[in-house]
Amino acid sequence: MAIVGTLKTFKGGRYFPRLQGLPRGPLREGPVPPRVHLPLRQGFGEEPDPLVEVGQRVRTGEVLARSDEKISTPVLASLTGTVVRVEEGVHPLDGEPTTVITLEADPEPYRDDWAPLDVPRGNFERWGPEELGRILYEAGVTALGKWGFPTPFRTAPAEPSAIRALLVNAVEAEPYLRGDRALLFEEFEKFVTGLKILKSALGNIEVHVGLGYDLPHVLEELEARMEYHDWLYLHPLLPKYPQGEDEVLIKTILNEEVPAGRPPTDLGVVVCDVQLVVAAYEAVVEARPMVDRVVSIGGSAMAQPVNARVRLGTPVGDLLEQFGNQGPSRVIVGGPLRGSSVTDVDAPITREARALVALEEPRSPSVTTRWGFLPGADSHVRLLPPFGREKRATTALVGGTKPCIRCGDCVDICPQNLFPIELAEAGERGDLERAEELTIFACIECGLCSYICPSKIDLLEGIRKAKRWIREERLED
Ligand code: SF4
Ligand code: SF4
Known about the structure:
The protein has 477 residues and is α/β, with parallel strands linked by helices. Among the domains are: 3-21 and 119-286, Rossmann fold (3-Layer(aba) Sandwich), CATH 3.40.50; 401-477, no CATH class. It is 26% helix and 19% strand. The chain has helices spanning 128-138, 179-186, 188-201, 216-225, 246-254, 274-286, 316-322, 365-371, 409-413, 420-429, 432-437, 448-452, 459-476; strands at residues 3-4, 28-29, 35-39, 57-58, 63-65, 75-76, 81-90, 97-105, 165-170, 206-212, 232-237, 269-273, 292-298, 306-311, 329-333, 340-342, 355-360, 382-383, 393-394. The chain has a six-stranded mixed β-sheet with strand order 2-14-13-17-15-16, with helices on both faces. Strands 1-11-10-9-12 form a five-stranded parallel β-sheet, sandwiched between helices. α1 crosses α3 (188-201), α3 packs across α6 (274-286) and α10 packs across α13. It binds iron/sulfur cluster (2 copies). One iron/sulfur cluster is lined by residues 404-410, 421, 452-455, 457, 459.
């Protein structure tokens, strides 16, 4: 039978209160946008080479870019229409250059003309890792997750045969992230079969599902449905942020440490989320390529917070308009602790964009001059006193950065047992040797140290900078 573990958690981390603007209600279907922008670097891996030209007509799911010799996953058309641009642009999350393909949808009345996946007939349990891996790769599913999903193609740092355990992260602890929860509620059947598909794709390994203990009915249902599957382990977890992060999940469930800066595949482990499990089902059973993803759209500035299936490449401006952004607000792609601020309404939703959060921007000029729209520094979210039962989160920062008062809060909250202030100071001094001694690459960039710091020191940004310098130095050597 499915084996259920005892309630587990980890040291450090943070519980967040219920917030105003939390996405809820049934999963919504976002409309097909008139235009999508598809960066070729999306999710894990390098960018594949474009295979289409300007003026070419494409069907939904058709391959736009593919390079089997690179560590990459194909990029697919997310609508039926025409290629109108193939040019250098920037990735919306990291600001680094990447080729972007822009598609214009067919005129109204729009109808998807699908390019279905090549999927054999019969029971997928007989197909084996080779065939299942091919389908997942061609469906564009393998770029999800921090380190991709292993297949016979070059989609992850290890081959499927090197994997002994799959961990499914079904705990969403970062504020406003509710997409996986919505998928579990509404696509439960797909999730159950998706688990079997991924297990078969990795050569019949053991599968661990980490679920928030606040979802007892989902746990009970899974336990009942998987009664005769002794490869499945269910773990009720405290929904404390950042429980779902690969390193933290592995430590909590398997009690193993991922070596600093190394992928979990070094331990023979792969981590994925609910989205990947459901997308695997849709690819293998429905022959449906991954052309959309569930995005949690919320925040104190959103009039209609929802979880919606959004076509990849949809400009964030379209979503803000549709779901009622009540500016002025700071718009963040990803959660408020780890996401990136975007100021360009054309910035697209990519495979890794789990959330779109719009937080009220305070009106006082003293607040915005120092920190307004600081990319990547969104951990400076303040939680204000509750209105009713929920709290309101804004980007309000009372005053600017002050000197460190050595309170130790950043050390206490760090789930990786690091010394964030020492890391940031070593980076500031350019003492990269010291930063490496302090195991800077064990930092999982959860942003909690910046969030908690009473002096408003942007520790994460300092740590990220130091990491970048060390990587550049290594490349030069
Ligand atoms: S040092 Fe890294 S892992 Fe630790 S709290 Fe800060 S961002 Fe998170
Ligand atoms: S939380 Fe801020 S003030 Fe406190 S020790 Fe860390 S850096 Fe210094």
